[in-house]
């Protein structure tokens, strides 16, 4: 495992490491100053492990395609190229402020008001629309892979980052284990053919997390999550179960109990409707990015007609989950489940 104490030596020539930003299975991310232009950037330093080197090369392949897009207009991180440090591949990105996960955490995981949720979701749907225009599936959309550009701005701007397991739609392989537990679409867990609709499923879960402050589907493994999905949304479509490479893995196991309690309505019906369309169990019925961008929830005049209530204020639908891997208690608007 790479340590913060020796990260300085990974920075060659004109990149001076100023801070250690994070660490993952791939390696580390550092904040560096380019001494040639005095610009501060984020550098993803990949380990020299052969498998990680291959993954880094595949990420570069995707990032090269994304250069056709305007990073600001399309809400994706700006990539400034790469350089080598010995056998390590270092990817140079624009420096952004903080992850959406941390942004939510700064609110004590109590959820954001609608006036903040609406522009964030709109920007992310815009990002997915543009990824689709160049035939790319992100495949790992979640709060830690979404960055707030500058938290001090009055209007929150976000960008999608980490294209480490992204792929071309034409190169998708059914059965590939992509994504993160708790954010994967049902078709991923079952091992059926999938496409860019998996990103919309993940965006629906991000939307819920923005509103409630906690993940909708917590679980230690895919079985936990899939059982929760079925308990809350109903049985998966037959064609999905019949075509799944891994369907048998989910049979004949003890189910976990889930209790749902309904509360009074709080007027966020358009938000709930959008989430339901994002989380359609059948990928063919799931809303597309272009359709989402036209959804009435994003109507510019909506904020003046609909109260900007906090989803965790009095009202909404209270979910109490029993016997889940973690203890969760959260509110959610009515008529969803």
From TrEMBL:
Keyword Ligase: no
Binding site for ATP: 44
SUPFAM superfamilies per UniProt: Protein kinase-like (PK-like)
Family, as annotated: Belongs to the protein kinase superfamily.
Pfam families in the record: Pkinase (PF00069)
Coiled-coil ranges per UniProt: none
Keyword terms: ATP-binding, Kinase, Nucleotide-binding, Serine/threonine-protein kinase, Transferase
GO cellular component terms, semicolon-separated: cytoplasm; nucleus
Name the UniProt record assigns to this protein: Protein kinase domain-containing protein
Residue ranges occupied by any Protein kinase domain in the UniProt entry: 15-298
Keyword Nucleotide-binding: yes
MF terms in GO: ATP binding; protein serine/threonine kinase activity; protein tyrosine kinase activity
